[in-house]
Amino acid sequence: TSYTRRSGFDVVGRDGVALSEYWGRGMRSLHGIHVHGFPNMFVIGFAQGANQIANVPQNYVENGLAIADVVRHADSVGATRVEPTQTAEQEWLTFITSNQRGLRGNPDCTPGYYNNEGQPISESDMFNGSGHPGGPVAFFEFLDAWRQTGEFAGLSFS
Q1: Domain 3-152 falls in which CATH fold?
Q2: Fewer CB atoms inside 10 Å of the end CB: C or N, the chain?
């Protein structure tokens, strides 16, 4: 089910591009939070971050802490716009899709919901279902280290 059907609305970013169009071939983000072309939009979810096996409240807390630090930094430097660079977004996608073992599941398993009924994984499925290759704890540690530097690598503040 598309996010627009579940949410009941579509977000329109810079240059009039709809998020549904930008994500037409699968979600694209930096850390599952920031989306290039959609300044000041922050996504809290599971895809491209801790993934679906994370504890939901912890996921919200960790993402919220990162967002709060980004907003605090933007305020401190007088920026009114924050968004990831296209390069940073692509590098994150390359990183999170580098190990698809978890998405493919065990080939000996009975086909079911979590392995796409045994069907090959599309690019969209890969982007929408990928998370940090090290799992939720590794993602939370990564995100904490990223925000603790205060540099917010991959984000552009203007």
Answers
A1: FAD/NAD(P)-binding domain (3.50.50)
A2: N
